[in-house]
Amino acid sequence: MGISGGSILPHICRKNIMEVQSNIKSTLPIAAIIVASLGYFVDIYDLLLFSIVRVPSLRSLGLSPQEVTSSGIFLLNIQMTGLMLGGLFWGILGDKKGRLTVLFGTICLYSLANIANGFVHSVESYAFWRFIAGFGLAGELGAGITLVAELMPKEKRGYATSMVAGVGISGAIVAFYTANFFDWRTSFFVGGGLGLILLVLRIGVSESFMYHIARKENVVRGNFFQLFKNRKTFLKYLRCIVIGLPIWLIAGILITLSPEFGKALGVQGTVNAGVAVACCYGASMLSDLFSALLSQYLKSRIKVVCIYLVIAIISISTFFILRDLSLPAFYGVCLFLGFTAGYWAMFITIAAEQFGTNIRATVTTTATNFVRGALVPISLLLQYLRGIFNGSIITAGIIVSVLVLAVAFLALSQMEETFSKDLDYSEE
Q: Residue 83: how many CA atoms within 13 Å on its side-chain side?
């Protein structure tokens, strides 16, 4: 990592700009935090809504039980493909054209896709709009976190980014209750409407001063291939992705497949995936805020993630070891797992702090969506291992969990501490 020394702006100009930023810091960050938080709220609402309404929506299209499963997996993979491609597009655009361009562009796109989802009458049209929604969803969080991180004083970044994630994760709970009270089509309309209303709040949100300065400097912005220029840079980027894998192992595998795991574990009753999701994300919302406070107290990001990974070993072991639980007790374990996954904001903040302003949005946005997209190979590995171990989802789940946690610990052990790091620099 290097700091660009080729700034066209005189040093005194940079100093004056930063003084202006300091004078108005009480207003700009607040507006950005509100918009980024509510944007992520709608993001999570849409992302989890499909998992919740998958069965009733596909049944209403006339699909058989077997087709509901196969088409559901197909639609989920289509959405994840959109997330992966969108992560690249929006991340690069965020560094080239600005964080606000991406923040509002993504909100507009996935809001319209949400509304369109409410009008579908075939799997093909459903798939098209899930791809567009995924593509749009890919950019909001990375752009929002990057903007907030650059606007906030370095000692308080952790508070702000955790607030964004904490508020955003509550979108999963709202999605659960909305889907329970309304038809699946109406639930999509609600999500789209919330996003369009949010666009009105863009008034008062300004681009970060760091980005304005970076645009004046003679450095390349948004070059994704710059992350592969040498082994050191690539490994640093890879570590940013790997430390987030346990979060989606919990949310995307253990919680999403909780009905299947519950049956194999002998849970007394039928596990409702929607309730498990609500429990998990409700706990994660509170845990994200707690992780921010803990980070401020310890003055470290790395120590906090390490603590959460240790707790993950305990919570995942509890999930697999306890048998014949009652439904309430099993949902209690889901709460524990959700708390374990509550370092999402910390993971994104670390990614934002690892690289310079000219490529920060690219890193933050792509890393976030590559972690989400990693759910595909993780799920494929789970299915492969089930085949080897005579269909045992428990054995396969344990092996996958051990592998994911092991690589996460290894990556974290090699990462640079970024608490209170000055972000006003560009990569060479």
A: 23
**DSSP secondary structure code for residue 425 in this structure:** -
- List of residues 6+ apart from 131 with CB closer than 8 A: 78, 79, 81, 82
d(CA 67, CA 211): 48
What single-letter DSSP state applies at residue 219? S
Distance CA 127, CA 122 (A): 9
Residue that the structure tokens 């929002």 belong to: 144
Domain span at 75 = 15-217+228-413
Does residue 258 lie within any of the structural domains?
Answer: yes
Out of 184-193, 197-206, 333-342, which region has the weakest mean confidence (pLDDT)? 197-206
CATH of the domain at 43: 1.20.1250.20
Residue 31 CB-density burial (10 A; 0-12 exposed, 13-18 middle, 19+ buried): middle
Greater pLDDT, 69 or 186: 186
- pLDDT mean over 315-328: 95
pLDDT exceeds cutoff 90 at 221:
no
Q: Establish if 166 belongs to a structural domain.
A: yes
- Asked if 363 and 349 touch (Cβ cutoff 8 Å), the reply is no
Query: Within a domain: residue 1?
Result: no
